[in-house]
Design brief:
By secondary structure, the protein is of the alpha+beta class. 33% of the residues lie in helices and 16% in strands. Helix 1 packs across helix 2.
Length: 169
C-alpha cells in the first residue's frame, strides 16, 4: 500500500469519526461522505500522464462530466484524493480507463505529484441523470439537492459501475 493511500485512509476515517461524534441527530445510514466512500470506495493509484485532455483548474466535476461526452469509453469517479503537496483529503472527481488507470484532467502538471485517489465508479447513465435532476456538476457534494438520498440509503441499485463494484449476491 502506498504511503499516500495509508495517509488518505487515515484522514477519511478521522473525518468520518469526527462527524459521527458531532452528528447524533439524524438516522441516516451514513453520517458523512467520508464514511460512505470508506465503506464503498476503492483505491486508484495508477495515473495516465499526461491526460488526453486538460480541464479548467478547480472544476474537476465539470471537467469529468464534459470528458465523458468526448471520451464515452471512460468511467466517471468521485471520492477523495491527496497529492504529495496537499495535506487534506480533497473531494474530487476523475475518470478511469478500462485498465482502471486514472485520467485526471484537473490535477495536471508538476504541482500534482504522488496523486492517490479513493472513491467509487459511477455508471454514466446515473451521472447524467443526477446532473439533470440537480442542475449541478458532482454527485457526492450535491446529495443535499437529492434530499440526502445517498447518505440516508447508500447508492441506489445501478448507480455504481458493476465492472468496478460487482454486486454481492
Amino acid at each position: 500500500m502506498s504511503s499516500n493511500l495509508e495517509y488518505l485512509l487515515v484522514i477519511l476515517d478521522e473525518q468520518a469519526k469526527l462527524i459521527e461524534t458531532i452528528n447524533t441527530r439524524n438516522s441516516f445510514r451514513y453520517k458523512s461522505n467520508y464514511r460512505l466512500i470508506l465503506e464503498t470506495g476503492k483505491p486508484f493509484l495508477n495515473r495516465v500522464e499526461p491526460p488526453p485532455f486538460k480541464g479548467k483548474p478547480k472544476f474537476c466535476f465539470e471537467n469529468c462530466l464534459q470528458g465523458l461526452w468526448n471520451y464515452p469509453e471512460l468511467y466517471y469517479c468521485e471520492g477523495f484524493a491527496v497529492t504529495n503537496d496537499v495535506a487534506i483529503a480533497a473531494s474530487h472527481a476523475w475518470l478511469l480507463n478500462d485498465e482502471a488507470e486514472v485520467i485526471d484532467p484537473t490535477w495536471t502538471g508538476k504541482m500534482f505529484t504522488g496523486c492517490t485517489y479513493f472513491g467509487v465508479v459511477f455508471n454514466t447513465e446515473f451521472v447524467v441523470s443526477f446532473a439533470a435532476k440537480t442542475k449541478r456538476y458532482g454527485i457526492l457534494d450535491n446529495d443535499s439537492m437529492n434530499k440526502h438520498q445517498l447518505l440516508r440509503e447508500g447508492f441506489p441499485e445501478g448507480a455504481l459501475h458493476e465492472k468496478f463494484h460487482p454486486r454481492i449476491a
